[in-house]
C-alpha cells in the first residue's frame, strides 16, 4: 500500500531541507480552503456525496498537464489507514487531527516530496496545503495558487462576488487562505521579551500560538505566526504582512542571541552543553523535556557551539520522538512510560549516529 | 481545598485521570489548570467555534429589549438548500452549504466585520468561472488609471484606455 512509501522515509523534505533563514524559521505553510459548487459542505454532505467529492478530485488529478509537483502524487483514504498510521501523518503536519478522526470519506493527496498535501472532506471539500522549509511564505503561496488554478480548470468552486470563496466556517471566507510560519525563538524566550512582542503581533491582525503545548509556555520555544483575516484583503497583501512581521521577529531574535552571547556566554554554553549531555545520555525522557533540551541544542548548533551536529537535529527529532512515530517504529502500542524510555533511546541512537557520520 | 500545583489559590477544577487502570486525581486552580493545557479535559472545547458563536449570539442581548426587532424572524431563517437554520448556524459557527451565505445574508455582514474587519472579497477570482467579475475588476482598474492619465494631461494614453474600457464593457454586456 502506498502508505508504506511515506512511512519508509519518515521525514518529509521540509524537515531535511535547508530553507532560507533556517536558523530561526523552521517552515512556512500556506493552505487554501475550497468547496465545490452545488454540494453541501462536508458537515452536512451525505455519505455518497462525500464519496463523490473524493472521486471528483481523483478524476481531476488524472487530467493532463498537471503541475509537475503532483507527478507521482497519491491519494490515501483515511478509511484504509490504521489509527497509528493516521497519527503519524498528523505528527508530520500533513493532515489535521480533524481529518484523521472525524471526517467521513476523508482522504489526502500527498505529493512525492510531501510539500503538497490536499485534504479532502475535512471541514471544507478541499484544502490545499503547501509546506516549505525555512522562510518561504511567498513560494508556498505561489505553489498553492498554481495548484488552485489547475484544479479550477476541472472543478467548479463555490464562489460569490462579494464573499469570495465560500467556506464552511465564516473565519475562512473570502480568500480561504491561512498562511503560517513556524519560528524558533529561544533567545527571546530566555530574555523574556515574548510577552512584549506577542501583543504587538496580535494587534496587527496576526495570531501567534505555541506549537506542542498551550498558552505562553510553548514547548521547545516553537511558535506559529499566522494570518487571521481572510476576507477583504488580497492574498499577496496577507502574505506580505505576515512576511514583514516574521522578518522583524527574526531580527529581534538575532539581536537577543547576540546580546546573550556578549553578556553571558558561559552561562549559555553551560545550559546548551547540559542539555546536549542529557539528550546524549538520558534513559527516560518526557516529550516536554525532550523538546526543551532540543531547543537548547538547536540554539547551540545555530551559534556554532556544537559543530558535529546539523541544524536539522531539532526538526527531525521533534517529529521522530512523537508518540505515533515511536509506536510505529517499535511496531507496538506503548504506554507513556514505555514511550519515555523509547524516546530517550531513539534520541541517543540518533545523536551517536550523527556524530559518527560527521 | 487548595490547588495542588501552586498551593496558593483555591482549587476550582477537579478531575480524575485513568491511564491503564491507574487513577490520578487532580485538584487545580484555574491558572495552573491552564498551564497543564494539553492534558486537560474540556480545554479543547473552547475553540474558535465557541468564540464565534459568542459573536453570533449577540442577538441574544437585543432580544431582551422589547423595542428591539423580534428575534423570531431570525429564528425562522432557514437555508432553502440544505435546511440549516440561522439559530443552528449561530450555535455551531459553520455553514451547511454555499447557499447559506445567501440565505443568511442580511445577518452576516456584522459578523464578517467583527471577524475580518471587512465585508467584501478583494482577493483572487476563479479564472474559468469568475469571468464577469474579473472583467469588472479590470474595468475599475483601467478607469482609475485613466483618470490619473487625464490629470497628468497624457490624453493619448487616456484615450487608449477609454477604448479598452469600452471593449471590456461590451464583452460584459454581451
From TrEMBL, chain A:
GO terms for biological process: phosphocreatine biosynthetic process. It comes from the Bacteria. Residues 24-256 form the Phosphagen kinase C-terminal domain. SUPFAM superfamilies: Glutamine synthetase/guanido kinase. A motif (RDXXRA motif of the pArg binding pocket involved in allosteric regulation) lies at residues 339-344. GO terms for cellular component: extracellular space. Pfam families: ATP-gua_Ptrans (PF00217). GO terms for molecular function: ATP binding; creatine kinase activity; protein arginine kinase activity. It catalyses: L-arginyl-[protein] + ATP = N(omega)-phospho-L-arginyl-[protein] + ADP + H(+). Appears to be allosterically activated by the binding of pArg-containing polypeptides to the pArg-binding pocket localized in the C-terminal domain of McsB. Keywords: Allosteric enzyme, ATP-binding, Kinase, Nucleotide-binding, Transferase. The keyword Transferase applies. It is an enzyme of class 2 (transferase). Its EC number is 2.7.14.1. PANTHER family: ARGININE KINASE 1-RELATED, ARGININE OR CREATINE KINASE. Catalyzes the specific phosphorylation of arginine residues in proteins. This is Protein-arginine kinase. It comes from Melghirimyces thermohalophilus. The lineage of its organism: Bacteria, Bacillati, Bacillota, Bacilli, Bacillales. The gene is mcsB.
UniProtKB/TrEMBL annotation, chain B:
GO terms for biological process: stress response to cadmium ion; stress response to copper ion. The lineage of its organism: Bacteria, Bacillati, Bacillota, Bacilli, Bacillales. Residues 132-171 form a coiled coil. InterPro entries: UVR_dom (IPR001943), UVR_dom_sf (IPR036876), YacH (IPR025542). It comes from the Bacteria. Residues 136-171 form the UVR domain. This is Protein-arginine kinase activator protein McsA. One of its GO terms (molecular function) is copper ion binding. It comes from Melghirimyces thermohalophilus. Keywords: Coiled coil, Kinase, Transferase.
